[in-house]
Input
Amino acid sequence: MLSVTWLLIAVPLASFLVLMLAGRRADAWGHWLGVAASSVVALIGIGAFFQMLGRDAESRSESVRLFTWISGGDLQVDAGLLVDQLSLTFVLLVTIVGALIHVYSVAYMENDPRRRMFFAYLNLFIAAMLLLVLADSYLLLFVGWEGVGLASYLLIGFWNHKPENATAANKAFVVNRTGDFGLIVAMAIMFTQFGSVSFADVLGGADGASTAVLTAIGLTLLLAATGKSAQFPLQSWLGDAMAGPTPVSALIHAATMVTAGVYLVVRSGAIYEATDDARLVVAIVGAITLILGAIIGSAKDDIKKVLAASTMSQIGYMMLAAGLGPIGYIFAIFHLVTNGFFKAGMFLGAGSVMHAMKDQVDMRRFGALRTAMVTTWITFGLGWLAILGVPPLSGFWSKDKIIELAFVGEGWQPWVFGLTALIGAGITAFYMSRLFFMTFHGKARWTDEQHPHESPLLMTVPMMVLAVGSAFLGLFLAAGNRFQNWLEPVTGTSGELEPVLAVPVLITLTLALVAAGVALAYWMYWRNDVPTEAPPPSLAVLAARNDMFQDSVNRAVFQIPGTHLTRTLVYADAALVDGAVNKQATGIAAFGEASRRFQSGKVRSYALLMLLGFLVLASIIVVGG
Output
């Protein structure tokens, strides 16, 4: 099965091509082809996983060469796949969660006339993400990286008849191109230093490179990761990306797109292990983002944008862990896997609520949906408890490990990173409880035109499966250090955690902050009435509602100076470059015009000129002696 892992990419890509080329002839069955393709790759991924389990831990990595891709001069690049514990973990997450989202989408997009196109784009998304995580070189990874960017652009702007949706897709595309610049520069440095961009050559040769070079590579890779994973300072696109259909949001936030940046950092672990400065910046970026996302999520009334801010914050936890060493890579991926299940479940739950409420997203217009949507309430509730880190649900086993790791170390770092992680857990409990209570509890605040009802089975069954993962997956993977033992051959060995505060103390503090966040949200949004119109905000709330003025900052720092720079360059091009060329052309034309007067075409004139020329030459010779 490992030798045919290329089918993981080929099957959804072939489905995409069929759905695009078949046109409207596939409208009646195209969605089922999309579901079949995603289901087949899930089965292939599961088969490859069990085959790998049958091997010794040291021999669970296999390279699959496909073909010679680039051959020119000193650059030789083979297209190949790397199947190991890290890539296969992502394969399982992408394919299983992706298949469930495909099934859900059959019902969710039932009345959309372009449903076939939607499933084609979903299949392209899956294929690109699988290429990204299976590539054995940074260059082939970049192809998947750009494919994910293209698919996200198409899906975020799927309903592009609305100008704001097209704007959101453009914004995501442009911000991600900024991050992509970092990956391009990193590959250029790699080729200069190692003569290759393959993982084997770059990561294997990291020990022999200078710290300055590795720091440069680490920082440029981090720039790429911040764009793709919506981390500070390139996080501004994520909230607007909610313009796409809700299954797209689930796929972007749980299994593809934003997880790619975490994968890039963890896969490049050998580089970050050799440069403390770059690794520290990774941790700082993660710490800033986890707090930033939590604050933004506390002020939003749009249910999908709250979940988007939550993703930003949870990816921040993963980046923080990845910046804290080899065992941090394991905890980052562990939390990524559990987050994939409960975040996908909550996004699909949000879609179920929107389906029942005529696409309403304002939580101030919800309330008391628990009685009308029992299945959605239960499945969403399990995701809510999981992200809070309530034991024994999945988030407790993954996020609490990151909090413990944040308190490991010497000097200022354990206190700054540890307290940041703790505070983030408390704020997370508040804003996620706010979302849950405003949506499912309290008084009903919907209008007479809305008649809440439970979603069909094609939507609720995937939600149930994801809810089971939200509840039990973390416990299963944590038992006997099962997940840690699985990833250690890729990320490196690691010892026991020794935080500056005892683990029982940290668990108690975390649960106390979570309880306080839930209690505050209960008092404000369940016990008390929620106004249907948002009250006038304070400056702090206004800032959070406006994403901490990210767009204003980007406009002031990048857009306006960029506009002036562009206009200056256009003027300089017209005045100097084009001006010099045009003046040269004008001079030549003037010379030609003057010369034309001597070309009358009359033989007598030419004979006279020849005679004059002869006389001038003769005079020169005589005078010159």
